[in-house]
């Protein structure tokens, strides 16, 4: 019942020219000590969101360096995902906890999946809270267990966290993006390393300016006028309404500016649609605000084109676990402005590789500075790209995982 996810091949050698030979050699040396180890990634979904983005590259690279690595997706129905959505929001600080019935549903689906899990794994990596109880239910099925947390646990709903902690504490090791996300009361060994993006994936591969322009034009963008852009789900914590407010302040001084809000939608996410509609209402028919989603056929290539072509890329989140979109934008050497929250400051050195802001006003001010000084934008973009190259590309993430596996074997 656990669904294996088939991933396209990737070869570490293809990344050598991008990340440099020393890192590739270090990875090969570490991997040599781990040949044939059976590694399983367990996650809640193979589509949408940051976790699947990461695994589509990390899993084939683990295979390429000689691990027997698999990725499986747990089984769940609507009632389970409704409960885990409440859990996800509560763990990031929403006051609403799960009902007793929802906790029971979460537990029941974890039991079903635990039963179905095959055994004999050297390491089982469980991603995020949805399948987190599985380790406590079938510890004997893997020699080592890791809980990989992708969310911001710095200000959780205390009741929800308290209820989850006994399951988390069964993991001998866990991995968080940053130390601030390790919750009080977490036992075991907490490790910290951030996620990464794949520079060779369609979303991040180098695009010619002409191709990016061609794609943006197809969506009604006037490519001869400045463009601000945010790529993210329609979610209050991503603050698309705040982005519109900042754009309006910019527009008062730079009337030709345009804004693109690009966000993926799930047809079965009513909350997402409500917020999408609220965003459309807030745009109030402004023809220079382009609100696009995957139902307009905006996929990875289009996201790449918008990020590559924009004069300023914004991620004005008010809460953000990591924010892959931040690194995606900076990798394209675009001037970037992000909310000073969660994982964003990890990726942006304010004033050097982008700007960090806390208000709509500040966001607009920085956008005006960048639009008024193309040299500034170029400097930020260049410095940002080099920092991503060193810190946030998948080979570095692979190296960090291998280091952890080696520690298990020591
Ligand atoms: N994304 C996308 N299309 C969209 C909006 C988002 O492909 O219309 C991608 C985005 O490029 C990124 C991921 O979805 O790779 C979102 O990850 P992030 O960590 O930024 O936020 P999350 O949605 O996980 O909170």
Named CATH architecture of the largest domain? 3-Layer(aba) Sandwich
Strand tally is 13
Query: Per the principal axes of the C-alpha atoms, what is the gross shape?
Result: globular
The termini sit apart by 34 Å
| Count, helices | 16
What CATH calls the topology of the largest domain is: Rossmann fold
Mean pLDDT over the residues = 95
Which sheet architecture does the biggest sheet show? Answer: 7 strands, mixed
The ordered string of helix (H) and strand (E) elements is EHHEHEHHEHEHEEHEHEHEHEHEHEHHH
CATH homology-level superfamily of the largest domain: Glycogen Phosphorylase B
Under the CATH scheme, which class of the largest domain? Alpha Beta
Counted up, domains total 2
The share of residues in helices is 40-55%
What are the distinct ligands in this entry? uridine-5'-diphosphate
The low-pLDDT segments are none
- Sheet-strand content, in percent, reads 15-25%
Radius of gyration: 21 Å
Structural class of the secondary structure composition?
Answer: alpha/beta
């Amino acid at each position: 019942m656990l669904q294996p996810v088939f991933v396209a091949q990737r070869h570490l050698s293809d990344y050598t020219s991008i990340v440099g030979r020393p890192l590739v050699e270090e990875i090969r040396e570490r991997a040599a000590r781990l040949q044939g180890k059976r590694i399983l990634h367990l996650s809640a979904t193979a589509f949408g969101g940051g976790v699947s983005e990461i695994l589509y590259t990390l899993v084939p690279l683990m295979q390429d360096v000689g691990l027997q690595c698999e990725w499986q997706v747990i089984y769940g129905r609507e009632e389970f995902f409704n409960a885990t959505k409440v859990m996800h929001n509560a763990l990031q600080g929403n006051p609403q906890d799960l009902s007793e019935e929802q906790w029971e549903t979460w537990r029941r689906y974890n039991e079903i999946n635990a039963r179905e899990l095959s055994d004999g794994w050297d390491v089982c990596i469980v991603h995020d809270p949805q399948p987190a109880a599985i380790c406590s239910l079938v510890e004997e099925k893997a020699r080592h267990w890791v809980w990989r947390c992708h969310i911001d646990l710095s200000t959780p709903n205390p009741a929800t966290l308290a209820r989850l902690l006994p399951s988390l504490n069964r993991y001998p090791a866990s991995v968080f993006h940053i130390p601030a996300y390790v919750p009080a009361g977490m036992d075991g060994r907490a490790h910290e390393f951030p996620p990464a993006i794949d520079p060779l994936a369609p979303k991040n591969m180098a695009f010619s300016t002409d191709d990016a322009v061609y794609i943006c034009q197809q969506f009604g963008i006037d490519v001869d006028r400045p463009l601000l852009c945010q790529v993210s789900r329609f979610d209050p914590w991503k603050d698309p309404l705040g982005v519109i407010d900042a754009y309006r302040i910019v527009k008062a001084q730079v009337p030709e500016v345009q804004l693109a809000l690009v966000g993926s939608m799930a047809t079965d996410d009513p909350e997402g649609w409500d917020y999408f509609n609220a965003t459309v209402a807030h745009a109030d028919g402004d023809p220079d605000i382009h609100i696009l989603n995957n139902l307009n056929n905006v996929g990875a290539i289009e996201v790449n084109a918008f990020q590559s072509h924009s004069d300023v890329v914004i991620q004005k989140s008010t809460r953000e676990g990591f924010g892959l979109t931040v690194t995606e934008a900076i990798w394209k050497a675009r001037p970037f402005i992000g909310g000073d929250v969660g994982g964003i400051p990890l990726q942006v050195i304010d004033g050097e590789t982008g700007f960090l802001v806390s208000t709509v006003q500040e966001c607009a001010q920085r956008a005006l500075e960048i639009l008024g000084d193309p040299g500034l934008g170029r400097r930020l973009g260049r410095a940002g790209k080099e920092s991503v190259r060193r810190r946030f590309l998948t080979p570095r993430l692979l190296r960090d995982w291998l280091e952890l596996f080696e520690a298990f074997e020591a």
